[in-house]
Fold each of these.
Amino acid sequence: MSTTMQTQIESELADFMSPAAIEELDLTTLSRPQLNALAEVIKAERDDLFLSRGHAEATRCEKDFFDPGLTSATSAVLGAMYPPSNSSMEARATSQIVEDLRNDGLHVFDVRLPVEACSAIIDALGSIDFVSKASGAVLDGYRAENLHAGHGATHWARDHAELLAIPAVQRLVADPIVLAAVEEYLGAQPVHVQTNCWWTVPTSRLTALESLDAQRYHQDREYIRFVKLFVYLSDVDHENGPHRFVVGSHNDYEQAVTSEYRFSDRLSDEQIERSYSPDRLRRLTGAKGTMFLADTFAFHAGLPVKSGHRLVLQIEYANSAYFGLTQPVPRTGITEPVLADLVRQDDRLVLNYDDERYEEWHETIPATRIAGRAERTKRMVRARGGDVMRFLRQRANR
Ligand SMILES: O=C(O)CCC(=O)C(=O)O
């Protein structure tokens, strides 16, 4: 049965891969569900199936992507479908970044985003809606009076399109060095899948909300292979909740987990400290404008904020939009030539830029959907006669 599936896949791959490259994939090592998963991705890419998370769940292949063998094979196929276009000059300029990402899963840039660009972004954030993760409250802008108004630690930009409308953000998304490094690291032309921004403040409800606020160690598994550009838009020292990252754990995460581990599970600090030596536990402090690229398949977490607050901008790239929860953004409003040119060329980078899908998303997913998630949890817990905070605390400590 699997042999038939394997032959079928191999004959499809023959359209764009050499026999030697197909042999190198060694499909014989993949189980039947994994072959199914690979066939699904090829089909999704060919048919332009975009938001296929439901699809992936329906075929139960999502969990198979936690297997590095399948991820490598699929990434190699994506690399052959969308080969990187780097020139040798770019490759030289980005080789250290790529090497750091391969070895450590992390590269901290030795230059910061210039102060003027930070200020331009921060000014624009003053009139962008943010949503409190804990309460679902919508706050009208990153402003001093809103910092603590959402009753939780973390507040997210509601609509990625609003962030992408900021010219300095557009320039970052299409920054030639970042793009060349990401493409080389992913081994395929990247898709810009997310633009995020959030601020975090101290809260007395930390323990219960740490999990929800990504402040406990976890791995991301949003896309087949992906990498995130973090930009600090506030000064971040040990008090302001620096990002924590377990260097190299994208390569050896298995040593920290048991066989019951599921990719969305949170790990305690003690679990991580038992599995990795202190020199592998990085805390990323840095002045406003600090930038780093991180493969967050590695263990990572924010540190709860003790004082002040932290403001982060994040841009995510993936080798495929397959099974991502990608929020679409419109093409209209891309004004910066460096990104507008890629839109005009219909580059794979802007696959998720689509006015029609954005309109649909905008109409059907208002803030209430995000708020709805918190409301649903509360209703569920209350219906069982439970206490919401106790439930969240238990979940966080699981
Ligand atoms: O806030 C942080 O530093 C953690 C962010 C995080 O978990 C993520 O971007 O996947």
Note: Residues 33 and 61 are 7 Å apart (CA to CA).
Amino acid sequence: MLPTRRLAALLLALLAASVPILAVAPPAAAVEQSVAIKDFAYAPANIQINAGDTVTWTNLEAIIPHDVSTKIPGEPEPAQPFESPMLQPSESVSVTFSTPGVYQYFCSLHPTMLGYVTVVG
Ligand SMILES: [Cu+2]
């Protein structure tokens, strides 16, 4: 005869095996990605994210301010335009992208600084 505890464990195992497992995949967790602004460049300059993810830009220069803006003269506005305040050294700005598309952005003070965020649905 089985000891009571072993019997209980066996019954629990049988019960667990007979219960259908309802595995529901959780939605993909939103991710935060970082882009450094350093040496007059965005690094990485190209990132790909999923809709719902957030990108945080941080100015890592010693003394140079920069911003992050999709309002590029002569370029069409993306689905979700944005324009950060001027970021002083060590300041950050975060944007959560809900709309898929390719977002080209630049620094309005240094228009040769370009970056791209590709948002996939
Ligand atoms: Cu700049």
Note: DSSP finds one helix and seven strands in the chain.
Amino acid sequence: MNTDDYINLFDELDDNEQTENFINKDKRRQRFPPRHFKYVRAANAEFLKGQDDSSKSFRFTYPAARFEEWWLLESIGDFYEHKWITDVLRRVKGGKEASVYLCRSGAAIDSPLVAAKVYRPRSLRNLKNDGQYRTGRADLDADWIAYEFQTLEMLHAAGADVPKPYAMEKNAILMDYIGDFGNAAPTLNSVTLDPGEARLLFDRAVWNIDLLLSNQRIHGDLSAYNLLYWEGDITLIDFPQVVQPETNPAAWNIFLRDVTRICQYFNAQGIKPNARKLAADLWTSHGHRIIKEADPRYLDGEKEEDRSLWEKQKVKYMSFKFT
Ligand SMILES: Nc1ncnc2c1ncn2[C@@H]1O[C@H](COP(=O)(O)OP(=O)(O)O)[C@@H](O)[C@H]1O
Ligand SMILES: [Mg+2]
């Protein structure tokens, strides 16, 4: 199979995941001509035949679709082999970049349940190396996962309210599961707080933001969507895009955006924080300078000062997606 075939297969998986809650067969039929399914079925069979994987001894409770099952075996089979987990019970959520699965813990973990964040195959599109596709051993950008894992380790050790990380594999991270057997913790954006609790949790969120800064970290995608709420406590999640204040010229803007989004949620819960002032106070209390961004239209290419400002700034334009 060539790269395009693999991409088609992974697209199928992504589509399956995305439509899980509103499967509409007619719509799907409209999107793909009938030949497409025949083709995909044949390609599927060939593909699965090629997967002779020792982790196949791992059978789990969660009734995964075929490619999802393969992807799970590929991504978290080693967690099973190394006895971090004994079962996959269900999918908690299919997120933007990753799906999170509730797993039963193995002996090495104290709590009975644990969460596996498994990156979606969509990210494979960025793969540069054809050979990796051909062997069917699809590595995501391992550095990216390692960065999220190490950030979690460091912040957990520093005492931040983050899930404890246990293990990582090339596509997946194993960490504390927030919730109970029946329900995963909701994200904070879906929760309405009473006034006393809103104040406590706002203070706690700010405490965490401050603690991250003390450890030279900015979350970078902080909002009520990346805070879990469980039994009166918050947990910060989702760390692949963390940035460091000293090394990123757009750091102040990213930090300001994080603080602003958190303030937006708490504003709706009756706390009326001044986001900009709060961000500026936190930022400067850690010795950072507020670097105002210059609009590229007003920079003068003839001036050395403007050119060096743009050199610093353009990193942001090239490497960050502002949503
Ligand atoms: N440790 C966890 N315990 C329980 N649920 C989790 C955990 N981590 C993530 N989730 C759930 O999975 C979703 C996606 O995880 P997240 O890390 O935010 O990835 P994404 O990049 O896909 O947003 C979250 O919104 C949350 O509902
Ligand atoms: Mg998220």
Note: Residues 195-214 form the longest helix (20 residues).
